Amino acid sequence: MRRLSDERHKHLVTLRMSGKSIPEISKETGVAKTTVLRHIKGVQVPHKFQTILREKQGGSKDRAKALRVNITAETEKLVGSISNRDYLFLLVGLYWGEGTKMDFSVINSDPLLIQTFIHCLKTLNIANDRLAISLRVHRGISIPEAKRFWARTTGLPKQIIERVEIIDGKKKGKLPHGMCRVRVRSGIRDRLLIQSAIDFIGKECNKGIVSQ
Asked: Is the pTM of this model over 0.85?
């Protein structure tokens, strides 16, 4: 890490004190933004310049918000309506990447992924009464709260949660609600169907690569 001289450090602080934003300071001095941030950390901007600085920061937030809105609209246009066939391919991808190979199940900490997996199962006409839920949580995490959270997430009654595995380790920095495992009961045929689809897709992709 290259250390700046005291003179350059004071220059960065002076620019900050005058209400300059981090991108402005970086552009004016040629110093990387991360370095600027390190050197001006904790600097109190005089009150008369705080409004100017907030407006600049607000402008950045507005641009970021506008970008997110544009990206969302572009994504919706690109994806379009999702068919049952699309959901089937998504189910194949989810099981391929996150599924366990001994049975037809997926375990993950992402609520949206779990919800998507359950929804995609409908393409195989798998009803909710064929699903079993189990959790894996770190010691110190509230099991009743974890059960309530995953019951709300999956739309299934918490009474069907079969078991909760406790993992030793500190709670700090761990997953707040643990991981949820969704298993399809009597799912041998369904699992073989998905695995067959994985093999088929893999072979087709292999052809495309080898033939190039």
From this structure: no
